[in-house]
Specification:
endopeptidase fold (from Nostoc punctiforme), 23 strands, alpha+beta, six-stranded antiparallel beta sheet, about 350 residues
Length: about 350
């Protein structure tokens, strides 16, 4: 259930937030004033938002993405010199995109990158090797690993924080709906190097008329403009979308450049695009097109509706592309490294007669 009211009873006694935000309490009544004064005096501002960690990223642990977008590579040797801006903390994705201006350079990512994960995403550490960790992204389902989509990332792009995990489990959620937004009024942390983007999902700890206050994976908290997010109860989800709802979200990215393995407003691949659009509406589908092609129910070509997924396969039957049906014989998709997200007549686009079926998810 979406809500636009001030959060109450959200956190334990004594949390103090930035100017204009309420201190939140779940334990007190009007008869507890004397004990409340004693307890509040013992609380250090920001103490309940400090990162809880042993300072290590080790096999079997849960960690969180602590950069705008983490790129998961096939191995630590996969990145090229042009990919350096995507490897730091913070990342510089504008510079990386500039480095990838040439289509052939972008095409060179094929086979080197597995997927991406947005700020705050939960991952399981599968292995570590030097400065790198192989992780599985929890919210990206795949047959490759039951824990989530696997790939290698620099350890410095991850953070261990048990407190943030508890907040994600227990608090309402603020989910970014704009392509990009900003963290403002950051407090109780020196870790300020991330931008927040579409589908970032952070624990809500306070809300006023203009802003929401969220906990950060590296500790501390920040404000986000309330118009940039949807807010949900702890176990809440968006209402079931119509096909037109899905298309309205998809068309926000019309003209966005293709990026192999991309799942963010810095670039999508074909299945990253459809995965992300459905996820924005509370519907989880597999990360890759081949497995998306087994989701939902089969739809005959003559019965297509807006929001249905269209699949295209090689002569051997391997699904290699997916788009979303718009209506009137058109689809919106992110086709390849030489193209952007765009709407096209899907039969005219399918010059190789590779259409292999459609699926309805909603």
């Amino acid at each position: 259930m979406r809500t636009k009211i001030a959060v109450s009873a959200a956190l334990g006694l004594g949390l103090v937030f930035g100017a204009g935000a309420p201190a939140l309490s779940s334990n007190l009544t009007s008869t507890d004033e004397e004990s409340a004064t004693d307890l509040e005096a013992a609380v250090v501002p920001g103490q309940e938002l400090e990162r809880v960690t042993d300072g290590k990223i080790e096999k079997g642990e849960t960690a969180y993405v602590d950069v705008t977008v983490a790129t998961l590579w096939t191995d630590a040797k996969a990145p090229r010199k042009v990919d350096k801006p995507a490897l730091g903390h913070p990342v510089d994705l504008d510079k990386w995109n500039k480095n990838l201006k040439d289509a052939e350079v972008r095409r060179g990512l094929t086979g080197k990158v597995e997927t991406q994960a947005a700020y705050g995403s939960e991952v399981t550490v599968l292995k570590t090797k030097g400065a790198w960790a192989q992780v599985a992204v929890k919210d990206q389902s795949t047959s490759k690993n039951k824990k989530g989509y696997p790939g290698w990332v620099p350890k410095k792009q991850l953070v261990e924080n048990d407190r943030f995990g508890d907040l994600k489990d227990d608090q309402p959620r603020a989910v970014v709906t704009k392509k990009k937004s900003e963290l403002e009024g950051i407090e109780f942390t020196k870790d300020t190097g991330a931008e927040i983007t579409f589908n970032v999902d952070l624990p809500l700890i306070a809300q006023d008329v203009d802003d929401v206050r969220v906990a950060l994976p590296g500790g501390g908290a920040a404000w986000i403009d309330v118009s940039d997010v949807d807010v949900y109860d702890t176990d809440g989800k968006p209402e079931k979308p119509s096909g037109d709802d899905l298309l309205e979200t998809a068309k926000k990215f019309d003209g966005l450049r293709y990026l192999w393995a991309g799942v963010s407003p810095y670039g999508f691949d074909c299945s990253g695009f459809t995965y992300s659009i459905y996820r924005a509406h509370g519907i989880d589908i597999p990360r890759d097109s081949g497995e998306q092609a087994t989701t939902g129910k089969k739809v005959a070509e003559g019965d297509l509706k807006a929001g249905d997924l269209l699949f295209f396969s090689t002569s051997s039957g391997t699904v290699h592309h997916v788009g979303m049906y718009v209506g009137d014989g058109k689809m919106i998709h992110s086709p390849n490294a030489s193209k952007d997200v765009y709407v096209t007549d899907w039969k005219s686009w399918d010059t190789g007669n590779e259409f292999s079926g459609a699926r309805r998810i909603i």
